[in-house]
Amino acid sequence: MINVVSDYGPSILRFIVLICWCIIYKKSKCGKINRIVLKYFILFLSIFLIWNSSMFVIKWLNGVTSYTYLVFWGITSIFELYFVLKVVFMVLSSEAHKDIFYISITILAIPSLIATILSFIHRSYNPINSTDFFNIIILLLGTMIILRKILSSPDFLENIESFFIFSGFALYFCMHIVASNVLTLDFLKNWSFGQYATIVSLIFWLGSVFFIWKIRSKHSS
Amino acid sequence: MENQIQTFVLISSIVIGFFILIAIYLVVKLKLNDILLKRSEEKLKNFNETLQLMVAEKTQELLESQKKYKSLYELNEEVLENSPAGIVRLDAHLRISYLNPEIIRLLFLRNESLESLIGEQLKNVPKLNDIKLLYLMDDLINGLEISTDLRISNDESNSKYLEVKGVPILDGGTFSGAVLLFNDITESIIAEEKLKQSFEILQKATGDIIQAMSSTSEMRDPYTAGHQKRVKELAVAIGRKMNINQEQLEGLKFAGIIHDIGKISVPSDILSKPGKINKMEFEVIKNHSQVGFDLLNKIEFPWPISRIVHQHHERMDGSGYPLGLKSDQILLEARILAVADVVEAMTSHRPYRAALGIEQALQEIADHKHDYYDPNVVDACIALFREKKFKFSA
User: What is the value of pTM for the model shown?
Assistant: First the structure.
């Protein structure tokens, strides 16, 4: 039972969360930041869904699974960095410095690319796991900056969806750090913790939908 | 064992996740409350500022309107106090609630003070207790405007005429008071009387002149002496019988007495000719209407005398002279004069024939009731002789 939950739970939950947040995105009439955050969040969920779906399809094909995993890991890692960095730049009102943004994202993306290549060459997940750990720390820091900015902003009510999304991300990244910390917990042994972290985060985002609806209906006037 | 640990970890993670979600929600709620509080404070502050601004504006407006009202009140008071008309304000019970100083002078109320008259009933105020004025108060109470004249005298036998105008004050259709305006019209009354006297003198002079003109023309024709006077008598009697107005009657009187003035242009030989006159002579006689018109048209009378004289030989069917006018084209006075002229002429002696008598004269006008003469005039004339037994003066 626990294995079923571990294997299929995140995918099913992700699909439900995606549907719910698509509805929120449709109904949302909020500011620019909120729209972009919602859009990237939906993209984030969609990429993971495609990843999960592709993994189901090709899990019977020997030898391809690991490559597919590596490719998707690379894509999602870079996308997560792009997403968080983009929003960080937006909330810090540094959108005008587009060149700095592109330089930053390029620098941040290089380790993930190298890790993917190294994992492929050495046929080991260690490079990507180590990079993932550091990436998550960076993402968590970015998320903290975003949350702090949203919380102190006078437009907090307008960006309530973003706040819930990044609160979920904070939870997600925190739990992933715990799950994938090679220094404290053995990765292979505690592999399932990563899956649970995803489930908990998805449940958080699903529950957020209800609270957002409640807040919005209360403050719509 | 490992599965149990994993299940435990999963369930605890989900529970922790829920707790975190609720905690986040509470944080959000607190933050929202804070935001809403700040917004409400801001709104309240703005509202307070707007309110203060509005109060300041309204106070300024109030002060300005108060100032305006005060100046208007002062102006009003000044106008009322210095008005050349006497003004009396009555309340719903016809008690005096205000009166200006001029009223004291107009009503010769030297022994009374303004204050002593306030609150008095109109009927108790000397000079204002005129029965005519008090009678009109009912009209005022019924919401009608009144206008009348009063003659006020004082102890030294000085008198003056006052024109009184009253306007009711209605409050939703109910009488709540009235304003009476008293204007001294003594001078205009005196001027009017003088004008009336002058007019009477002028009218008498006009009459005398016309009489003199009539006598002048009759002096040339002894046979027709007194004809114009008798025609005038009969014409005026017919006019009265037909109820024509006084103005027309006056015109008819003067026109009647000089209607043959044009005959001064006709040679005396023709006028006094005993035999039948020929066509040429008749043409000369016919010209007397035009001559009369030409003479009288130069004088500006208050009545259309020249036109009446001009048309007194016109006939209803257009067969008359000098213009050949028909029915309504002929003045009513001229139509009356035509009948009176014929009747008088036929009942009088002429150099060429004896008097034909009243019966024949009445028969003549009755025979030509529609073609020559106005039927109404003929009926009135016949009625005068038959019913009123009209007789020409000697």
Answer: 0.49
